[in-house]
Amino acid sequence: MDDTIVGISSSGAISILRLSGSKSLEIVSELLSSKNKLKDREICYGKIVDKGVEIDEVLVAFMKSPKSYTKEDVVEIYCHGNRIIAQKIMNSLVDRGAKIADRGEFTKRAFLNGRIDLTQA
């Protein structure tokens, strides 16, 4: 479980892209243009910029290990709920080393890391 994973966890007016793994903060920081630095348990406003092109205005939350659902570093990106925008952000995250999460992989990591038990999974 050394990979940093990413997945789109919602649809609708706001999309949530969730990363979990040791490189989550590093990967997102490469794309986030913000006046503020990401801090544990705070929401930061900024823009996702890839290769000089602004993709979207976003809110970003960072949850430092072990105080997250997976007990790993977790970053959530809240972007506009346009599927194309969410996919562009996802592609940019994958280009920087994140792996697209398998179905149930966030819950699997939570279980394997002792955050939840088998009955909760």
Oligomeric form of this entry? single chain
Uncertain stretches: none
The CATH superfamily bears the name Probable tRNA modification gtpase trme, domain 1
Shape: globular
Task: Please tell me the total number of domains.
Answer: 1
CATH topology: Gyrase A, domain 2
> What is the N-to-C order of secondary-structure elements (H for helix, E for strand)?
EEHEEEEHEH
Evaluate the radius of gyration: 14 Å
Task: Please tell me the overall pLDDT.
Answer: 94
**Strand arrangement across the biggest beta sheet:** 3-4-5-6-2-1-7
Figure out the total of helices: 3
Question: What is the end-to-end distance?
Answer: 18 Å
Q: What is the beta-strand fraction?
A: 25-35%
Short summary:
The chain is α+β, with helices and mostly antiparallel strands and 121 residues long. Helices cover 24% and strands 34% of the residues.
Tell me about this structure:
With 121 residues, this protein is an alpha+beta fold. The chain has a single domain, classed as Gyrase A, domain 2. It has helices at residues 24-31, 83-95, 105-112; strands spanning 5-8, 14-20, 32-33, 43-50, 53-63, 74-80, 99-100. The chain is globular. It starts with a strand and ends in a 9-residue tail after the last helix. 32% of the residues are buried.
